[in-house]
Amino acid sequence: MQEFYEIDVKEVMHSRVWDLPLVKESDSIKIVLLVLTSRGYVWVVENMDDMKLVGVITEHDALHIFDEFSEDMKAGDVAEKNIIFCRKDEKVKEVIEKIRKYNVRRLPVVEDGRLIGEVTLRLLIEKFYSLIC
Asked: Is the pLDDT of residue 1 over 90?
C-alpha cells in the first residue's frame, strides 16, 4: 500500500516526550534498571532541559550491566551511543528500511540533536491497520 509508505513520520510518531522512557546520562544504573523493568528500553539524554539524545539502553544491554556492575555505574557508561534515528519529515518507507536494516523495534525522532519523539513498530502497525479498516 503506497499511501502508507508515503506518510511523514510526524503523522505516526509518539511526540509526548514527557511520556517516553528517559534518563539522564548521569543517572545511576539503578534508575536505568527500574525503567527497563517496565519499558524494556530507555532513551538517554544529556539533561532534561535540552533533551539532547546521547544514547539508548535496551534490555539486551542489561547483559553488559550484569557483567560489569558497580555501584557508581551511570546510564552514560552503558548506553549505546551509535544511535539510528529518523527525522519528522522522513517517510514511513525510510523508517521501515532502517528498522529492517538495523534490526531495531523503535527509532528516536531527532531534531537538531534533540529527542522530540519516537516511532515504534507498534505505532506503524496501528497506522497501517487504520488505513486498511
From this structure: no
